[in-house]
Amino acid sequence: MLALDAAKSAGASYADVRISRNRNQAISTRERRVQNLVDNETFGFGVRVLVEGAWGFAASRELTRDEVSRIARQAVAQARANRTTLVRPVTLAPVTPTPDGTWRGPARIDPFDVPIEEKVELLLAANAAALGVAGARFVNSQMFFLREEKTLATTDGTYVVQTIYRAQPSLNITAVASDNSDFQTRQSNDVQPMGKGYEHVLDAKLVENAPKWADEAVRKLSAKPVEVGRYDLVLHPSHLWLTIHESIAHPTELDRAMGYEANYAGTSFVAPPDKMLGTLKYGPEFMNIQGDRSQPGSLSACGWDDEGVRPDEFLIIKNGIFNDYQTTREQALWLDWWYSRQGREPRSHGCSYAQSWADVQFQRMPNVSLLPGEQNLSWDDLIAATDRGIAIVGDGSFSIDQQRYNAQFGGQVFYEIRGGKIVGMLKDVAYQLRTPEFWNSMDMIGGRDSYMLGGAFNDGKGQPSQSNAVSHGCVPARFRNVNVINTGRRA
Amino acid sequence: MSTLVSLLAPARYLSRAEAEALARRALSMATAEATRVSIQSGTRGNTRFAVNQISTAGDDFNTTITVRSLYGRRSASVTTNKLDDDGLRYAVETSERLAKLAPEDPEEMGELPPQQYAESQGWSDATAALEPDGRARAVRAITEATRAADLHGTGYLETTAGSFAVANSKGLFAYARGTGTALTTTVRTPDGSGSGWAGESHHDFSRLNPASIGERAIQKARLSANAVAIEPGRYTVVLEPTAVANLVQLLGFALNARNADEGRSFFSKPGGGNKIGMKIVDERVTIVSDPLDPEVPANTFTGEGLPTSRTIWIENGVVKNLSYDRFWAQKSGRPPVPFVGSLRMNGGSASMEEMIASTPRGILVTRFWYIRPVDPRTILYTGLTRDGTFLIENGRITKAIKNLRFNESPVFMLNNLEAMGAPVRVSASESGSPGLAISVPPIKVRDFTFTSLSDAV
Q1: Facing A360 at nearest CB: one of B56, B371, B453
Q2: Does the structure show a pLDDT above 70 at B7?
Q3: Can you list the residues of chain A whose pLDDT is less than 70?
Q4: pLDDT value at position A491?
């Protein structure tokens, strides 16, 4: 409150202060040894102010009365310096304040209560299980945990305290040909990072799954190099989440569409908004893409975003047509015309986020998910329906242009499909796509029982670049006639 | 803390005496057989602008201390930014408790005794003294020009000023301070049909020229409008220095001896061992790291307190060194070779104009973007051209072309070298932060592989 008072008396029309204590732990091993055992804690606060339509922000780790006042005044001075270039003053969409809110992520077992020996033992046991497979020569394994306690107060009257958990166990197994002529890896990324506690590690069954992953790494050495050409692709949710992330979630960020991220993350082909909303046919009619921060165990879940908005569930793509952007309070008003046409007040979807107390909050993606189809089709059903294609499991290499048109994706394991059956393993596979054609080529999706959450801890955006943790739920899906290249070249 | 010059003075960091006092205080609490502390402190100032006005800006100041405790071959580390006695004691005690629980590490090398270090070169008062007003002035040098030109200027200016110290219970103490800054801008035509980029990075802010950065990006934005499509395939390319650095730094990151010896690297030798002594690229290529290079300085010691020194990685196309950590060096019977956080590639005498004039048909690339690994066996990466891609025909730039996706390796690229210009320091990080200090020449290369076309502007 001291920070808010200091900011107001220095001339701010709006201010918010975030105080955060962030503890994380990382354990990394290779083969039979622990490489690193690291416990980090960072504590501090950041003050954001709006002065005559310009933003200012300052942060410090010293939570003393003098420092809080000084930082608040520094943020105001910062805003005044920024005002010298002002063209369009910032205004904020209305928000319903929460005077006393608490929210806690769904961790059944706090990872910081689990003895370190237990974690180490589990990783080394998984390594041993992987190395028990002939040909698996190296294995790196890791666990990462985070618990963030975050308090937000705003001059609108919001005061909320939230506790966020994140957990990710992972293995990376390398098989090397006996004459050193080839090596192949298999990452365990059918286990995805989650907004959960230690129970996520136990559920991952690392020791039980390690031999399967190791075996796949070894089999990749003798897999058939893919022939370039056009194939039908059947993409597993452990892979497809990343394609959704890059080709749907990023281009529907409103700041990108308006040019605010042009210098780094880029702009968007889903622009300008007035030509896209309600018009752009992103995919087939059965394609529905939801934005939310509410799915239990998802990485983006929270009670309130970093400017005190309670996030809602909204359809970014509705029956194949582009329907809405991801927004903050500043941005929601830019779409006033679109919301008023639908008889709605312009309200933020609650997409404001900062990676730490030291960083200013801005628009970050919520969970962006492909909703299940009406028929309860499974992964196997999609393969059985495919005559000539490639099935891809796990995310791999990825790259996409600055407007999110042209992308290239690899994967972890590639299977050749012939006559509705998997007939063998392929390697050196990557597919290239142009976003609108790719999503419009989707002709089959799985049902509710095949839905899973993928995601990432390290989605980068903004300058300075900030990491956002986000989940993408999806079902397996089939895409017709996609361009596949062979990435294997001789050194 | 260092004296505050004014309310806005951003350059707060721990002096040598302050870092030493903090290290001594933490080490005095330690009871482990050996303890190391690493202290990082500093201020980062940043100003962003979008569509010709400042959008956000911030200043943050932080100090963190990492305590590493060692019992025999058991170790653990704890990092905190709570620097009062309670906070430090908690970090030391937690680190010691975790270390006792950790299994023995057969590769533990123990703490180093005191070492001698050269004075670090990477500090600039001009950078450390830059305040939000000064940053806003630099930004206005671009936005006023873009507004006058009826274009949209978007970009980013970051400055960092800080110090890094390592101390251990054997009496080792290392301290260095450093600054960094980068200013980049992407200028777009209001209709979205053209986009141009320019940027510079240095540890000394006075070496950046904001007005010139703006002018170059404006020119590229105008020239790049209404680009036409060409067929993807293998082309002769003239790469501006930023594009060269985007790819050459990837070669630098792969210079690891252990991965090579283990058979999982481009630098693995068929049949076993590594490629030290083997020619891998054109004989005109030499790549060096030198922490005392005044143009591309780097830290003079590692996180363990090991001194860094001038290291030749590739000389006349031949691999001279790979990086060896202390364990792998001992196992291999060699001295450790730390990776140094800077790179310099030598150049040649060709000018950009000459490289273009000697090209019957080729592509001029301003920079690459979203560069991600595809195949570590060949250091193969994919990514795209961006913000200024032009067709060269009969020795002249004739038109703007649509962006292209490449699948290419810096190794293949440096084997297909045709010509090199004079090296310059560039801003080569995708994010626009200062990134790796790197100096490279513009180059001309044949048979660069583009695999698809992008509609992105």
Answers
A1: B56
A2: no
A3: 491
A4: 66
Residue A451 lies in a domain: yes
Average confidence (pLDDT) over B94-99: 95
Question: Quick check: B4 pLDDT over 50?
Answer: no
Give the model's pLDDT for residue B11: 57
Q: Mutate which of B62, B107, B409, B453 to disrupt the A interface (most A C-beta within 10 Å)? A: B62
How many Cβ atoms from other residues are within 10 Å of residue B88's Cβ? 22
Write the residue in A138, A259, A430 that is nearest to B154 by C-beta. A259
Q: Residue B166: its pLDDT value, please?
A: 98
A287 and A164 both lie in a single domain: no
Q: Is A37 in contact with B384 (Cβ distance < 8 A)?
A: no
B429: tokens are 């990080």
Q: Quick one: closest CA in A to B368, which residue?
A: A401
State residue B61's pLDDT score.
87
Report long-range pairs for A205-209 (Cβ below 8 Å, ≥24 apart). A206/A122, A206/A123, A206/A125, A206/A126, A206/A129, A206/A141, A206/A169, A206/A171, A207/A122, A207/A125, A207/A126, A207/A129, A208/A129
Task: Say what the pLDDT of residue B9 is.
Answer: 46
Site of tokens 């490449």: B406
pTM, two decimals, is 0.95
Last residue in a domain, options A201, A222, A243: A222
Q: What is the mean pLDDT of residues B80-102?
A: 95
Per residue in B356-397, pLDDT (tens digit) is 999 999 999 999 999 999 999 999 999 999 999 999 999 999
ipTM over 0.95: no
Instruction: Tell me which DSSP letter residue B401 carries.
Output: B
Q: What domains lie within chain B, and their CATH numbers?
A: 16-220 (3.30.2290.10), 227-255+277-321+339-457 (no CATH)
DSSP structural state of residue A303: S
Whether B210 has a pLDDT exceeding 60, the answer reads yes
Q: Does one domain contain both A139 and A247?
A: no
Say yes or no for a CB contact (<8 Å) between A37 and B76. yes
* CB-CB under 8 Å, A38 with B264: no
Q: Which helix (H) or strand (E) holds B425?
A: strand B424-426
Q: What are phi and psi of A396, to 5 degrees?
A: -135, -130
CB pairs under 8 A between A and B: 288
Q: Do B188 and A267 touch (CB under 8 A)?
A: yes
- CATH number of the domain at A29, please: 3.30.2290.10
Tokens of B210: 């904001």
The residue whose two tokens read 């048109």 is A405
How far apart CA B342 and CA B252 sit, in angstroms, is: 9
Distance from CA of B296 to the nearest CA of A (A): 22
A200 and A345 co-located in one domain: no
Task: Kindly give, in sequence order, each residue whose CB lies less than 8 Å from that of residue A372, ignoring residues fewer than 6 positions away.
Answer: A445, A446, A447, A448, A450, A451, A475
Query: What is the least distance, in Å, from the CA of B134 to any CA of chain A?
Result: 9
- Nearest CB to A401 within list B50, B80, B456: B456
Q: What domain range is A249 assigned to? A: 229-486
Q: How far is A1 from chain B (nearest CA, A)?
A: 20
Bridge partners of residue B179, in order along the sequence: B161
Instruction: Specify if A310 maps to a domain.
Output: yes
To which residue do tokens 């009406």 refer? A374
Which of B48, B81, B94 lies closest to A42 in CB terms?
B81
B94–A182 C-beta distance less than 8 A: no
The shortest C-alpha distance from B446 to chain A (Å) reads 17
Chain B residue closest in CA terms to A491: B378
